[in-house]
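@channel anyone free to eyeball this complex?
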Amino acid sequence: MDQTQFALENPILDDDSSKQSQTADSRLSENKIHSKTPDPTRVKLGQGRKKIVIFSILGFLFFLAALLALFFLGRKPEENLTDKLSNKNFPIIKKEMKFEDEFSEIYSDLKEADPALNTLPFPPVDLDFNLFVVEEE
Amino acid sequence: MFLGLVFPVQVWAQGLQNQGNIVIDTVRFEQEIQDLTIEYKSGLEVYEEKKNKLDFAKAQYEQLQTLASLEEAVDVGREFFVARDEVLLSYAKLLRLKLYTSFGIFLKTKQDKIAAMDDLISRLEKHNQNSKKIESKDDIINQTSEFSLVGLRLQAESARIVPLFSLGKLQSTFDKTALLIDKVDAHIEESNFSAAKKAEKERGMQQIRREEEDIKLILKELNGPIILDKRGGVVKSKYDSNTVYSGISKLLSYLGEIAAD
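replying in thread with the prediction:
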């Protein structure tokens, strides 16, 4: 059965599709009328929503800033790295230390006494060099 | 070049720490050590050059076996002997001067080693004078046999003297540390710490005294006479300068904790 024969035998289908296309055209033309003449009530409602959104964002940011400020103000100031090192590894420069001069002098001496700095290796010369092989008598 | 700029300043600063004639001596010896180091380094360069030349001359003589190649080998051999003696002489003088200016070494050990070095320097100078007069193959053979004993003795002395440099300085640093330990101990006794705090510090001082005693024994062993085994070989200690260095460092760290509060 070809398409022409099918259309002749089922005329109702053709009628429905033509009705549907007509209603779609009428809706389009209604929409065109709405876009050309804007509703004043609808515009007012949009501005109000924008204000609410802006104020809520600002409020949230303010709340966040207040939280951060409270967090940093409430924290104990951290020791800097130099203080940490001086307290743990280098007692020589620790604050309020007794006998600081003596410690300083001994540390300076110890630095000079480092075995790695006090070497004088034997010169790389050939001590057994024989120019002529001596024949045993 | 950078070291050259820094070094005089360092010498001057060290000189200022002392007083009287010691200032002049320190600066003079430092200058002498610096001059000898330069002489030693340039001597080594000359030696390397002569050694390469001699290796070539020796190979040529062994291959050709001609009078001309023998003459060439003797000439180059003379230059080689003189260069080697000069390197060893500047090294021996440097070693002696460093030993003389080092502090903290037992006086007897220092005197013995300086006397040994003086003897070696005079033997090397004599050998150097004779090397300059080399003219024949026989002269070369004689100078070779004369040198062998001097060279090996210098090498043996160097192996004994070099560790003394840091050991002497470490001994001196340890002596100063021992004095400071006594001072800190006396300070704890005089201070008005709470009973708990005082007990804590006293426990710390006991630990420090134990560490101090250990280092004292190690230093005594290292500075003591060389012990020989049944076969005549040197019995090597399980400790060395590094053990003492890290021991003093630890001692100072403990003492710093006690003195800090």
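from a first look: Chain A has a mean pLDDT of 69.
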